[in-house]
Amino acid sequence: MIQTLFLFFAAIAVGAAINVLAQKHVLYSALSLILMLTAVSVLFILLRADFLAVIQVIVYAGAIMVLFIFVIMLLNLPQDEDGADRLRWLKFVGIPLGLFFLFLVVATLWNVESSVDTRSGISGSPVAIGHSLFTDFLLPFEATSLLILIALMGAVIFAKKDL
Amino acid sequence: MIPVGWYLILSAVLFLIGVLGFFTKRNIIALLLSVEIMLNAVNLTFVAFSAQHGQISGQIFVFFVLVVAAAEAAVGLALVIAIFRNRESLNVDRSNLLKW
User: Fold this and answer.
1) Which is the most buried residue in A32, A74, A118, A144, by most CB within 10 A?
2) Between residues 34 and 73 of chain B, which touch chain A (CB distance below 8 Å)?
3) What is the CATH number of the domain that holds A42?
4) Residue burial A39-72, b: 16+ Cβ < 10 Å; e: rest
5) Per-residue pLDDT, A118
6) A96 falls in which pLDDT band (50, 70, 90)?
7) Least Cα separation, residue B67 to chain A (angstroms)
């Protein structure tokens, strides 16, 4: 049952990720990426990372992707600008090499024996995450606020009219 | 009981798709979307190992990756707006001058 769920949502994630690349217009790519993020959040639930699954939907699919779609619609992009003249050959070299790399990884990982028990084990509940975040990881957490402040100022300065 | 290798293989596949997109697409926004795919693949690896080893640290790292991804999206999209305002194009091959 759990395996079926995993395979189903893994297939959705991979298919949506391929669709991100296959689409001509960036807007459809972004919408397809939202589907992939949602499928990955279901996989987080299967791994008992409840808080991250919720955060994935709210922050990633909700905030970040809305920002992307907002910018795409704001810029009013010209259709189909993807004429890669100079790097056309890259596809024919890169895709076989990438598939070979993937074959190596799968051949290595195929026989991993330890399995993830989805019923027992740790739970990534908000309580557990928050407790760890405010005790062991307090300094990185505070540093994160500095990072967000810098990113905020950078975004404002970059998007100014007279750059 | 799902073998942890399944999660690792899935995230390797997703990461590879992201890398392929990053190297073959020419639109800046498509490149940013490919980076998001790669970040998600790494997040999945973190959570899978966190569940396997019974440690919460992996999920904390995913939290930080999310924060960095949000900051990256904000700055990256501001740069996209600035580039589009100057070049009227989002093709990265056309933004090949540092200053002109």
Assistant:
1) A32
2) 34, 36-37, 40, 43-44, 47-48, 50-52, 54-57, 59-60, 62-64, 66-73
3) 1.20.120.1200
4) bbbbbbbbbbbbbbbebbbebbbeebbebbbebb
5) 58
6) confident
7) 7
Residue A30 has pLDDT above 60, yes or no: yes
The string of pLDDT tens digits covering residues A115-127 is 666 555 677 788 9
The pLDDT value recorded for residue A145 is 93
Dihedral sign for Cα atoms in the order B84, B89, B95, B98: negative
pLDDT at B61: 93
SS (H, E, C) A62-91: HHHHHHHHHHHHHHCCCCCCCCCCCCHHHH
Nearest C-alpha in A relative to B13: A102
Number of domains in chain A: 2
All structural domains of chain B with their residue ranges: 4-87
What's the CA gap between B23 and A126, in Å, rounded? 37
Task: Convert the pLDDT of each residue in B2-32 to its tens digit.
Answer: 888 888 889 999 999 999 888 888 888 999 9
Of 1.10.3720.10, 1.10.287.3510, 1.10.10.10, 3.40.50.1970, which CATH number belongs to B4-87? 1.10.287.3510
Residue of A147 and B55 predicted with greater confidence: A147
- Answer yes or no: do A139 and A72 share one domain: no
